[in-house]
């Protein structure tokens, strides 16, 4: 009996590695600390009723933000571990099997559990405010999205200490990811972590699409809508078409592993190459859907801090929509080396074609700045840093798109440098810019600029120091996904420089955390309602906005309506309040997320009974919700009056 | 969050320019688009793997014409009866709506039952999901549709329950419309399965 428990737990828990024991201890300590603080300050009820059950898009946005910053930390630690291992030749810090696990979790976490939720944080914080709505179209579903993402991410991260991490790369190509080559729970963690959070992503895509199409304030024609909302719209279109592909792909992989089917196996007539096609049919649109909202942020920021309307509004919209469309026709560029040359030619051309709308956008931003009264505020700094970074990333992307040349760069450090250049320079800088820009709106106080400046320079210098040498390493023949190399390769100096850069970016992140903590302690609430002299509707209401956002729904007449109203002195509105219809809080999304977690955990360990219990729980939650007819309430006029008087609303 | 409920207020009194029901139905259409893509990928998978028998049985050897014709007939009829239910909705007759929905549910259960027996027979004949890529694709495509139908059945029962409790309200009206929209959608998907999998399979 004792023997069997011992055996079980040595399989169940990952053992024998000081790193992992360290993680175990810190996880337990953090949990104890959280439980202690919540109990000591009697905050359990507050946590439940204000956060875990909330359906308020602003609070959901904040929860997305916190979770994605945690994931940035985790993914960043992975990155630092890898760069440490690669700093010198023949290092013995991470053995090759650990290295495989870490690049897999790094890539997966950074894209799916950092970039995606950071993007959803911005969607939630900004879109309803920007289009003059009181909430998203489906507030309850929005909470479901968050909790499925959250529990999916937790499930994925659990693999580090229980059962073992996946190690087949961030896209888990078959047949490597099949049972034959990747036995055990690691690969199942990958499948279920992504699958569960993918449900949430798809739901968010639908939710924000409908919100934007159906909930705009009266008078806001689509062609008067702020550019960020346009970028969200195009991103949602991609989500709606791309995520079902991912769901099926991972579903089939799981069926192969669990039921012994033969979709992507080597025997039984399976077709592994079909997996590679499917996963990139989702994967390429995926990277575009995370970068489009970043483009949206830049458009807002450039206009605000140049004090000018965005240049070429229509061409911007056109560029966004054509990128959404084109992004579905380029997937083969990820495996030119495995496809037919005629197919390659087609996909090389579509890939290069994407550079055109992207170029249009860059020119529009530059023309907006041209002769503008530019203010170098933090959001603007990140935007300006983005432009050259993204240009280099784009140029190297076009180099990779030249199919015959790609046979040289493929799977080398040239590729690693390229995609980090667009992912960090484009997505991460863009989202940072957005967070700095909208932070005062959501939290009601501003962030300390001096600490922010440190973070900015550390990130930027660190970025170039890390990734420029990697282009050269690529040319020198260093392949990706190698855990070590010899002195004789001549790669040592550049790798060492690259590692220094990674630590600089790590320091940049620490400055950002410090900046946030510092600014929370020394709250500077001055002028938080409209600190940047903004142009769009979100700046017309108090910061943080009341739960109903707009006491009176604005009537829109112009593009950049708030700016227009300020210029014309039309900012006063009649305080003629009506009762406001609001959704009620609900615990179901959180509970349903918990049941998804149980389902995922059970299926990961192939404990069918547990999977079934989880699924029954999920189904029950849905039915209970379907039967509930008491889901909303009204805020009476006198309460609105009191709130508005307190927060100094309706100017 | 202050949850002071002022009770339901007369609808003319409030500032509500978005019609909740139409927004929900619109969103459901968008969901159907993504569900359609899900099925398209499964169809593509089936087409890619269709001839990879790997020494196992082919469609022509396995599929029984009377069974899949019966399945098709039952599902088409159920689509018709769910349409009758929505007609009853427009006439405001709860009883009619409920009765037709019950008929639909019964037909749905018959369909799922037939499919399950079909699968069991196949497995007993030795044609399992691991036999060949063709069979993997077959089971997953047809089975996913079957799971959708089963979910639709539960959903319809829950709707019937609400109709009998609250009668026809804005809420139950919408819920009935949405569920029957879903049902029609599954019917359309089945027509493709019928053609691509079964008809082309036995030919
Ligand atoms: C913070 C600075 C970062 C550093 C120092 C860094 C470093 C690395 C390293 C060393 C690898 C492994 C290369 C290899 O051995 O093949 C890697 C892979 C990867 N990184 Fe990063 N990374 C960073 C940020 C990011 C971000 C922000 C993203 C995405 C938004 C990202 C996405 C990826 C992906 C997708 C892979 C490929 C994983 C795979 O091969 O399966 N990284 N990164
Ligand atoms: Cu791509």
From TrEMBL, chain A:
Keywords, A to Z, come to:
Cell membrane, Copper, Electron transport, Heme, Iron, Membrane, Metal-binding, Respiratory chain, Translocase, Transmembrane, Transmembrane helix, Transport
Q: Which PROSITE patterns did the record assign? A: COX1
What CDD domains does the record point to? Ubiquinol_Oxidase_I
Family annotation (SUPFAM superfamilies): Cytochrome c oxidase subunit I-like (SSF81442)
Instruction: Supply the EC number(s).
Output: 7.1.1.9
Q: How does it sit in the membrane?
A: Multi-pass membrane protein
Query: What's a GO biological-process term for it?
Result: aerobic respiration
Cytochrome oxidase subunit I profile domain residues are: 42-557
Show which residues constitute the signal peptide. none
Q: In which pathway does it act?
A: Energy metabolism; oxidative phosphorylation
An example molecular function term from Gene Ontology annotations: heme binding
A GO CC term attached to the entry: plasma membrane
The entry assigns this protein to a family as follows: Belongs to the heme-copper respiratory oxidase family.
Entry protein name = Cytochrome c oxidase subunit 1
TrEMBL record, chain B:
Query: Membrane-crossing residues?
Result: 26-47, 67-89, 96-114, 134-161, 181-201
The molecule here is called Cytochrome bo(3) ubiquinol oxidase subunit 3
The record places domain Heme-copper oxidase subunit III family profile at: 26-202
Q: Where in the cell is it found?
A: Cell membrane
- Could you tell me the Gene Ontology terms of the biological process aspect for this record? aerobic electron transport chain
- Where does this protein come from, organism-wise? Aquibacillus salsiterrae
Record keywords: Cell membrane, Electron transport, Membrane, Oxidoreductase, Transmembrane, Transmembrane helix, Transport
Gene Ontology molecular function terms on file: cytochrome bo3 ubiquinol oxidase activity; cytochrome-c oxidase activity
């Amino acid at each position: 009996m004792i023997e069997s428990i011992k055996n079980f737990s040595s399989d169940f828990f990952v053992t024998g590695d000081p790193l992992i024991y360290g993680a175990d201890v810190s996880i337990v300590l953090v949990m104890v600390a959280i439980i202690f603080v919540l109990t000591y300050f009697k905050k359990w009820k507050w946590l439940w009723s204000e956060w875990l059950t909330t359906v308020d898009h602003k609070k959901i946005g904040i929860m997305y933000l916190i979770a994605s910053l945690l994931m940035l930390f985790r993914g960043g630690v992975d990155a630092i571990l890898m760069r440490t291992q690669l700093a010198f030749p023949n290092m013995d810090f991470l053995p090759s099997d650990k290295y495989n696990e870490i690049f897999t979790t790094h890539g997966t976490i950074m894209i799916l559990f950092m970039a995606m939720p950071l993007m959803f944080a911005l969607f939630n914080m900004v879109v309803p405010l920007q289009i003059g709505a009181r909430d998203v179209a489906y507030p309850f579903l929005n909470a479901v999205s968050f909790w499925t993402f959250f529990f999916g991410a937790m499930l994925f991260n659990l693999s580090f200490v229980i059962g073992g991490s996946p190690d087949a790369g961030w896209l888990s190509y078959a047949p490597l990811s099949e049972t034959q080559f990747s036995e055990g729970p690691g690969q199942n963690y990958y499948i279920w972590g992504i699958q569960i959070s993918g449900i949430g992503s798809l739901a968010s895509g639908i939710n924000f699409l409908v919100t934007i199409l159906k909930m705009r304030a009266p008078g806001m024609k689509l062609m008067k809508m702020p550019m960020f909302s346009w970028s969200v719209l195009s991103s949602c279109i991609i989500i709606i078409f791309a995520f079902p592909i991912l769901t099926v792909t991972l579903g089939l992989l799981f069926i192969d592993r669990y039921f012994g089917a033969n979709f992507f196996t080597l025997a039984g007539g399976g077709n592994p190459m079909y997996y590679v096609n499917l996963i990139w049919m989702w994967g390429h649109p995926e990277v575009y859907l995370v970068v489009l909202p970043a483009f949206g942020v830049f458009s807002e920021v450039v206009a605000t801090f140049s004090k000018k309307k965005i240049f070429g509004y229509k061409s911007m919209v056109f560029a966004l929509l054509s990128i959404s469309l084109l992004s579905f026709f380029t997937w083969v560029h990820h495996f030119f080396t495995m496809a037919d040359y005629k197919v390659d030619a087609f996909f090389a051309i579509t890939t290069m074609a994407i550079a055109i709308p992207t170029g249009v956008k860059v020119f529009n931003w530059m023309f907006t700045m041209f002769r503008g009264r530019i203010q170098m505020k933090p959001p603007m700094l990140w935007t300006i840093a983005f432009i050259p970074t993204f240009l280099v990333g784009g140029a190297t992307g076009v180099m990779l798109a030249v199919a015959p040349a790609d046979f040289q760069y493929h799977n080398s450090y040239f590729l690693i440098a390229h995609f980090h250049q667009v992912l960090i320079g484009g997505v991460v800088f863009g989202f940072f810019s957005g967070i700095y820009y909208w932070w005062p709106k959501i939290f009601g106080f501003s962030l300390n600029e001096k600490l922010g400046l440190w973070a900015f320079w550390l990130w930027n210098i660190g970025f170039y120091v890390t990734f420029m040498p990697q282009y050269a390493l690529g040319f020198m023949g260093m392949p990706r996904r190698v855990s070590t190399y010899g002195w004789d390769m001549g790669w040592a100096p550049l790798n060492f420089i690259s590692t220094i850069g990674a630590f600089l970016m790590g320091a940049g992140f620490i400055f950002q955390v410090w900046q946030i903590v510092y600014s929370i302690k020394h709250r500077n609430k001055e002028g938080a309602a409209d600190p940047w002299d903004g142009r769009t509707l979100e700046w017309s209401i108090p910061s943080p906005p009341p739960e109903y956002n707009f006491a009176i729904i604005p009537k829109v007449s112009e593009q950049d309506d708030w700016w227009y109203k300020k210029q014309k002195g039309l900012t006063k509105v009649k305080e003629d309040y009506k009762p406001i219809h609001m959704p009620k809080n609900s615990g179901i999304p959180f509970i349903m997320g918990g049941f998804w977690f149980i389902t995922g955990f059970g299926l990961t360990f192939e404990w069918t009974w547990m999977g079934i219990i989880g699924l029954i729980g999920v189904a029950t939650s849905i039915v209970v919700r379907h039967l509930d007819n008491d889901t909303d309430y009204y805020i009476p006029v006198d309460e609105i009056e009191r709130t508005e008087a307190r927060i100094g609303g309706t100017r | 969050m202050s949850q002071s409920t002022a009770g339901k207020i007369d609808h003319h009194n409030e500032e509500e320019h978005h019609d909740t029901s139409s927004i929900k139905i619109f969103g459901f259409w968008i969901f159907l688009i993504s569900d359609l893509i899900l099925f398209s990928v499964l169809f593509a998978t089936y087409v890619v793997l269709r001839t990879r028998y790997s020494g196992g049985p082919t469609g022509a050897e396995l599929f029984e014409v009377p069974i899949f014709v019966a399945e098709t007939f039952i599902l088409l009829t159920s689509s018709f009866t769910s349409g009758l239910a929505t007609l009853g909705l427009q006439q405001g007759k709860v009883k009619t709506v409920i009765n037709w929905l019950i008929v639909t549910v019964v037909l749905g259960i018959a369909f799922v039952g037939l499919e399950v027996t079909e699968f069991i027979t196949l497995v007993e004949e030795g044609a399992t999901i691991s036999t060949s890529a063709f069979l993997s694709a077959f089971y997953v495509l047809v089975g996913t549709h079957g799971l959708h139908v089963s979910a639709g059945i539960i959903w319809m029962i829950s709707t019937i329950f609400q109709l009998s409790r609250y009668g026809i309200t804005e809420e139950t009206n919408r819920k009935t419309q949405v569920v029957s929209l879903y049902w029609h959608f599954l019917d359309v998907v089945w027509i493709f399965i019928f053609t691509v999998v079964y008809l082309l399979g036995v030919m």
